[in-house]
Amino acid sequence: MKVLFISAGDYKYGAPKAMFELFVTLKKEYSVEPVLLTKKRNELNHKCDLLGIENYAFWSRDIMAGSAYQNPIFNMMKHCVKYLLYLWGGITQKRVERIGIDFASIDIIHTNLNRNDIGVWISQKYKIPHVWHLRETLIGSAVAMYKPNVIDYMNKNASLFVAISQTVYREWAKLGLDKDKMRLVYDGLNAEEFTVRNRAGKNSADRLKIVMTGHVQPTKGQDQLISALGRLASDEKKKLQIDIYGEAYPDYRRELEKNIHEMQLEDVVNFCGYCDHVPKKLAEYDIGIVASRQEGFGRVTVEYMLAGLLVIASDTGANTELIEDGKNGLIYPYKDIDGLTARLKLALDAPELIEKLGKEAHTDAVLKYSNARYAKGVYELYREVLEEKTREV
215: Cβ–Cβ under 8 A, 6 or more apart, which residues? Predict the structure, then answer.
């Protein structure tokens, strides 16, 4: 079986990383022959080169996009540019034929993100089944649809949709996506890459180390964590170290730094930039924070779990599918600063809870969110699609 995987982003982001781990596992376990198509050459292509996996780059359009800019003028400008690129992409997409892919040998096209539709054009042109991954929630998000009647368009041009969580499944179903074509398969991660947290050698006088990873932008909620820290007593603040990893929107980071200064948290909160070795780094921490407005799955959440951290997460998106409050982590009401502060205080006052819930989280993640389970679920969908194609012939 030969599958063309279409990616819209670089390896440092969650969706491309999940796709890469998927096709590497499919190749190893099921002899699936992957071919990668990216929008431009990036780390994904380089990794494929090292593994001898056929790969190409060709710019393609987005049929929808969100924006994390707080300034409405910047939002409008971004969407205007993206819409013009969408129109241009409709003209240029047929040029994908020139880049050298042997489309006649492809059995399935797998588009990794709901925003991109170059896979539709290839599917229509060469009569190849098209599997479309749904990785984002749209309801309540500032997402602009550039393609008219986009839900009907997606329904007509996918053999199957893969939803990465129940939350994603439900929200796309509400928008009108064909439930008969939708399947639920949770993403997976490679547990062997993670070093599990170990407090041996540390004493009670050591600071409790809290980490927050992911893009530093308003929808990720770093401001909530800083506000919660500001409500702690002075002696409690001194017991904590907060490290925030990820690339930052400049205006948002300036706002966060202003709040840090006003709350006298300069000795507590650190911005650490992008980290390319998160699986090993997380073992240095005790608590991982997920304060997002909406996570379609929550790769960061599972990373914390695999590292054995206590996860404190907002009650939004798929967080409550991964974290059961009091069993393998703690849940707080989104934007409830007092609620988040209370969870931080609980961790300070009951360090044994960090050990207990961290171990439960690790066990759950290994069992439920492995790459083997992820690949098996997707491979079964591929077989379903090909069997349906055979029946149609």
Answer: 68, 246, 247, 248, 249
Tens digit of pLDDT for each residue in 136-173? 887 555 688 899 999 999 999 999 999 999 999 999 99
C-beta of residue 137 within 8 angstroms of C-beta of residue 104: no
Is residue 122 within 8 A of residue 109, CB to CB? The reply is: yes
Reference 275, options 267, 284, 263; nearest CA is 284
Amino acid at 63: I
Amino acid in the structure at residue 364: D
Q: What is the pTM (predicted TM-score) of this model?
A: 0.92
Q: Encoding tokens for residue 200? A: 């041996």
Model confidence pLDDT, tens digit, residues 173-184: 999 999 999 999
Helix (H, G, I), strand (E, B) or coil at 225: helix
359-382 burial, b for 16+ CB within 10 Å, e for fewer? ebbbebbbeebbbebbbbbbbebb
Closest CA to 63 of 157, 128, 126: 157
Which domains are present in the chain?
Answer: 2-188+370-392 (3.40.50.2000), 191-368 (3.40.50.2000)
Tokens of 331: 């849940």
